[in-house]
């Protein structure tokens, strides 16, 4: 009798559980997509100068409220996932020539050169020297899109391919790109200056590339010759001070650190013969256990404990960087070749 009386109450209980589950899912979606986050103009930090005033006048969007796309536009995580996996719709494919520069230590640095498709608005010869983000190169979609837009606005573009990042280019010395090594970027800039003596330079760096270009400009006064300005996009200015944030779960930082480390491991292991082969003369600091440690690494710091010392702050502050690959003097650009 009691069972018969309690049976009608069960559907109501189940309905309550369903409503609670739906409410929980909606709450998670709202939080993950930042739908409650208000839109506002960006916070601008700049030195009051003629250049800053010119940029603000020329780019009024910098002072206007940014209204992102509906539903997913307020979440940088969703945008990163969609762009990283799906890419752009109808991404452009600019045509350029690949150049090869032999460094003095035997490494082969490459960069792609794209000529302008229109006359510049002021009629000057201006070249953008571009350094991509970590493990990136000229074939990445965001670089292709940027280069295509720059070409159509009258800019010549030279895009560095980080040493070891291109899947079809083998390493010719036991060395890869690092967080702060400016040798390959400097060789590309010197090639542009010699090939186009009348050109002026706009230096552009994305993420890790922003660290490299700022460090390059701050190393010596001569590196700033013919440079009109430098644009650093999404750069971490002090990798050493930011190192502890890589291990935090807030904003999925630790997850992104794991993904970047996994990508770095894949690139390093794809060049294992050049980097860890029997023909490589290993310095005393490189032990046989390093390769097994690499397999087990889950963060960028575990892959290279010294990589975080190569901060642009050391150069921007007038000091010298401590980042020098083991046992090699800074090489000058050797011979350049290409079509």
TrEMBL record:
InterPro entries: AB_hydrolase_1, AB_hydrolase_4_sf, AB_hydrolase_fold, ABHD4. It catalyses: Hydrolyzes glycerol monoesters of long-chain fatty acids; a butanoate ester + H2O = an aliphatic alcohol + butanoate + H(+); hexadecanoate ester + H2O = an aliphatic alcohol + hexadecanoate + H(+); a triacylglycerol + H2O = a diacylglycerol + a fatty acid + H(+). Residues 320-339 are annotated as: Disordered. Its EC number is 3.1.1.23, 3.1.1.6, 3.1.1.79. It holds the Pfam family Abhydrolase_1. Gene3D superfamilies: alpha/beta hydrolase. One of its GO terms (cellular component) is sperm flagellum. Residues 127-294 form the AB hydrolase-1 domain. It is a single-pass type II membrane protein. Its main location: membrane. GO terms for biological process: acylglycerol catabolic process; medium-chain fatty acid biosynthetic process; medium-chain fatty acid catabolic process; sperm capacitation; steroid hormone receptor signaling pathway. GO terms for molecular function: acetylesterase activity; monoacylglycerol lipase activity. Keywords: Cell membrane, Glycoprotein, Hydrolase, Lipid degradation, Lipid metabolism, Membrane, Serine esterase, Signal-anchor, Transmembrane, Transmembrane helix. It comes from the Eukaryota. It is found in: Cell membrane. Belongs to the AB hydrolase superfamily. AB hydrolase 4 family. This is Monoacylglycerol lipase ABHD2. It comes from Myotis davidii.
């Amino acid at each position: 009798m009691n069972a018969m009386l309690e049976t009608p109450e069960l559907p109501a209980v189940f309905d309550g559980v369903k409503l609670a589950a739906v409410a929980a899912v909606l709450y998670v979606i709202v939080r993950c997509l930042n739908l409650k986050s208000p839109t506002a103009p960006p916070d601008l930090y700049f030195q009051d100068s003629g250049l800053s005033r010119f940029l603000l006048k020329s780019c009024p969007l910098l002072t206007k409220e940014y209204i992102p796309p509906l539903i997913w536009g307020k979440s940088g995580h969703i945008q990163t996932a969609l762009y990283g996996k799906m890419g752009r719709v109808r991404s452009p494919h600019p045509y350029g020539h690949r150049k090869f520069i032999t460094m003095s230590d035997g490494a082969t640095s490459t960069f792609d050169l794209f000529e302008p498709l229109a006359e510049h608005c002021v009629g000057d010869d201006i070249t953008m020297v571009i350094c991509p983000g970590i493990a990136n190169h000229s074939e990445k979609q965001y670089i292709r899109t940027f280069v295509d837009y720059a070409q159509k606005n009258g800019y010549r573009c030279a895009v560095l391919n980080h040493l070891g990042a291109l899947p079809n280019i083998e390493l010719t010395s036991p060395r890869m790109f690092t967080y702060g090594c400016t040798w390959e970027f400097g060789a590309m800039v010197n090639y542009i200056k010699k090939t186009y003596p009348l050109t002026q330079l706009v230096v552009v760096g994305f993420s890790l590339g922003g660290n490299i270009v700022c460090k390059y400009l701050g190393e010596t006064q001569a590196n700033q010759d013919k440079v009109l300005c430098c644009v650093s996009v999404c750069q971490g200015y002090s990798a050493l001070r930011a190192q502890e944030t890589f291990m935090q779960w807030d904003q999925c930082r630790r997850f992104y650190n794991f993904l970047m480390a996994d990508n770095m491991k894949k690139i390093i292991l794809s060049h294992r013969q050049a980097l860890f082969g029997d023909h490589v003369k290993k310095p005393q600091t490189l032990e046989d256990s390093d390769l097994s440690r690499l397999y087990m690494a889950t963060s960028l710091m575990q892959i290279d404990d010294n990589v975080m010392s190569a901060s642009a702050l050391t150069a921007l502050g007038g000091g010298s960087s401590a980042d020098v690959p083991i046992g090699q003097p800074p090489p000058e650009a050797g011979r350049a070749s290409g079509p």
